[in-house]
Amino acid sequence: MKEEILLLKIHKALKEGKDYYEAICGNWKINKGRIPYIQYVAGVSGGKVVCAFQPSKWEIIEEGSEKGRKRFEGTEAPLEILKKLQKAEEKVLKKFGRGSAVAYISLSEIV
Questions:
Q1: Do residues 5 and 103 touch, judged by C-beta distance below 8 A?
Q2: Count of CA atoms in the C-beta half-sphere (13 A) of 21
Q3: 5, 39 contact by CB (below 8 A)
Q4: This protein's superkingdom (predicted)?
Q5: Model pTM?
Q6: Residue 79, Cα to own-chain centre: how many angstroms?
């Protein structure tokens, strides 16, 4: 099974005063087909990986201006995952397209 980490730029939400979990849990335009493979979600701010969470439940927003976006509930990822992401930071940052707030990296790429 393909195991992925969803990478999200969260600096704007952090500037608004949100904590890491509030900043990262939603609402994101992500590919619904990738959700079953996402093992972890990592937050990137200021060119650094600042947090990582392990999603336990995903929700698709059904109404309003956020319709179709996804959000998750979860818990903090093990510290070893965050450290591996931070160690592979250069590789992580290269995954983002120009101006994109969402990217993916395979778990095997950071091990």
A1: no
A2: 8
A3: yes
A4: Bacteria
A5: 0.94
A6: 15
